[in-house]
Amino acid sequence: xxxxxxxxxxxxxxxxxxxxxxxxxxxxxxxxxxxxxxxxxxxxxxxxxxxxxxxxxxxxxxxxxxxxxxxxxxxxxxxxxxxxxxxxxxxxxxxxxxxxxxxxxxxxxxxxxxxxxxxxxxxxxxxxxxxxxxxxxxxxxxxxxxxxxxxxxxxxxxxxxxxxxxxxxxxxxxxxxxxxxxxxxxxxxxxxxxxxxxxxxxxxxxxxxxxxxxxxxxxxxxxxxxxxxxxxxxxxxxxx
Length: 240
Fold this sequence. Notes:
The structure is a single chain. This protein is an alpha+beta fold. Helices cover about 25% and strands about 30% of the residues. It contains six helices and twelve strands. Strands 1-2-3-7-6-5-4 form a seven-stranded mixed β-sheet, sandwiched between helices. A hairpin with a 2-residue loop joins strand 6 and strand 7. The chain starts with a strand and ends with a strand.
């Protein structure tokens, strides 16, 4: 595992994509500050100051894309939850991969597949975790409830470096098992942390909003939603 520590970057994911040809498999890129961070569905990830985590892992597991790679964000969400649990918290997962504590978001994950022509070049797995953000800082984000490790743990909050060390050890421990089995390897761990099951929810899709009851997640990590007259399986979307 190679480590690259940057003082400031537009986005660790963008940096990884620009340098992908020169970066080895399992390279970890971190930055103290990020000026143009992005989340899922084109959202902006707001930099709440130094001490928070802005990290990208470069992964080149094979020469061809495997559908199992589509669940890497869900694998990472479980790893982040296990790390938060190690530090004494009780996180939950909002489908597909947002990590929350008491309904407040603490981490976001974005995985991008890089293909050149028909050649699979690798995966860019980025994540942001609010470690040191203050209550005043998180109030800058007005479109959702947000929290941080320092808010939840107060004086017992670990540093971003120690949190990342623990997270990476958990991630690499089962990484090869995940590559072999895909979502089925983490399904049990994922479901026991899911906060959305058996609840009436609204899911935002690119072209519409669906309402229904989330009753399950299938073996590929897709959401099963019971609507008025049919059951729908969603592989993309965002719970509102």
